[in-house]
Design goal:
Elements lengths: L1 H20 L17 H13 L2 H4 L3 E11 L2 E11 L4 E15 L5 E19 L5 E16 L2 H4 L11 E14 L5 E8 L3 E8 L1
Antiparallel strand pairs: 1-2, 1-8, 2-3, 3-4, 4-5, 5-6, 6-7, 7-8
Helix pairs in contact: 1-2
């Protein structure tokens, strides 16, 4: 399983690098300079800068997702709201509800009720002329607010978590999106961080 996840992650990184190396989707940047060192980084930030120009901002549109995560020791349902600054890039915020499983010194586990709040950035890598299929890469960072714990856990002398505690996390979630109608798509992929699992959802 570990080797499989490492292989898939390496493939997504390579595809993202190739796409960024040939990104001409900006409405402002029409030619990329390949003569300078650090091509991938400079080209990406040049395109990103162009996305926030006055001309490009006229093309911005909202993008919303409903997504679910099924991970080791964790599960959640989330809503995100973002701005699609180009055909490839989305920036936004997310919130959700879920359960996080806690273990004690001994047998058994406890389900903590928690809320998620986070920032995210999605980068699409369209495939083919019709661009019906796309690879995507979601980078997320935020906090997990634990608001409820079972009474049996709170009475346990080994308990280290209390209601109101925060847990900070980062996550990388690559996957494949399939366009259904208009700009909408359904998507499915891996979730890497804070634990490992899968995710899926719909984009509107």
């Amino acid at each position: 399983m570990k080797r499989f996840i490492i292989s898939i992650s390496a493939a997504f990184l390579a595809l993202s690098a190739i796409a960024q190396n040939t990104d001409t989707s900006s409405v402002v940047v029409t030619k990329l300079d390949f003569s300078q060192p650090r091509i991938l980084v400079s080209n990406y930030f040049d395109a990103l800068k162009a996305d926030f120009s006055p001309e490009a901002r006229e093309q911005w549109r909202p993008e919303f997702t409903l997504r679910g995560n099924a991970m080791l020791l964790d599960g959640s349902v989330n809503l995100t709201a973002g701005i699609r600054t180009s055909t490839r890039r989305v920036f936004g915020v997310g919130a959700g509800w879920g359960q996080h499983f806690l273990f004690r010194n001994g047998p058994g586990s406890y389900a903590a009720q928690r809320m998620n709040f986070y920032l995210y950035h999605r980068h699409y890598v369209p495939l083919g002329r019709k661009q019906r299929f796309s690879f995507y890469s979601d980078l997320m960072g935020g906090g997990m607010w634990i608001y409820k714990l079972p009474d049996s856990y709170l009475k346990d002398e080994s308990a280290t978590v209390r209601p109101g505690d925060w847990r900070w996390w980062l996550s990388w979630q690559p996957g494949i999106a399939v366009r259904t109608w208009g700009h909408s798509n359904v998507f499915l992929g891996l979730s890497i961080g804070p634990t490992i699992g899968i995710h899926g959802g719909i984009t509107l």
